[in-house]
């Protein structure tokens, strides 16, 4: 026999109905996300108004064809491209990066970072977490990588935007591990170069906002009744996170940050009217609006004959034909971002990092291409040497840090670990890299097990 519902049960049922409606509008899930993050937020001190943009080159770009050419090496090492001078004496880079060359005084190239993991997942996990992966072939890191760590450590920063935004849920080999999925990014997967580019749950018309406001009013009235019953005050925190989520979803600041139409045609052309250029521009808009950490992956350049990512083995493509199509797009996007950061006075506030998980083998390895069916040049995975570009952050620019051996095989002078770069970045964001989180077994795990900020960047 069914018993009639008590007044409290009826009230809870009514609220569940309202919540279901709210969920269809996208608000409740974001509130849950915010609540989960805050429940495990790290203690914090005063946090600087700083941000980081990570331009991630999945697959591993060749240092020998970008920032560390070896024109005097034997032909089987040096390859087809020639170096050109930049506006910084002694810093030569690839001939297919002429726009980089004009703004080299606004970035630094680090040539001596290396690690020991030569597969994509393990290399990315090692580079981005600062720890040796337990399962190097696992595409999801066993340790939290930098985006989720920043998300957790700066969760208290409230600028009307998510603190961590990316164009994919995680990079290949990255992840949040024991920080939980609440530390993963707010994902903006659409191509910002499209005329109809929109971000779900950010761009709302006035009628939808009115419906949200009406629904929130109803929820608030029922919450007031529930608070009369609540004995421990826990319901008040639920209201706070629902309100914060609604404010984020409907705020002018969030909507404006994602509105690419606010940029002039000249600016958009400067970055390049392609996916990579507009992702770089969107990243600048997001950090300028207050987002703490933005990851933009530059994959699939959209050029016929180019591979999807930077993993140019000979079986995947002709290394030099691929780069002749890929590098001009990359050159325009990155150089425009660097120049824009400085021209807009953001160079003290924003740090830009451009990197992949490792470099490529110093010796060219010709093989028969899977598609071309002919012998063609390529380079394989190589963590013994790689080049990383850094810009802004109030740091010393216009320099080359470290060097590699004559054939580009190994770091030689000023050998650095990825952790040294991560320690530099965490310091810039006001994050203590000695801070420990508890892993799944309850063991305290410092953010970095080793590493020190790079003194040449200070």
TrEMBL record:
InterPro entries: Alkaline_phosphatase_core_sf, DUF1501, TAT_signal. Pfam families: DUF1501. This is DUF1501 domain-containing protein.
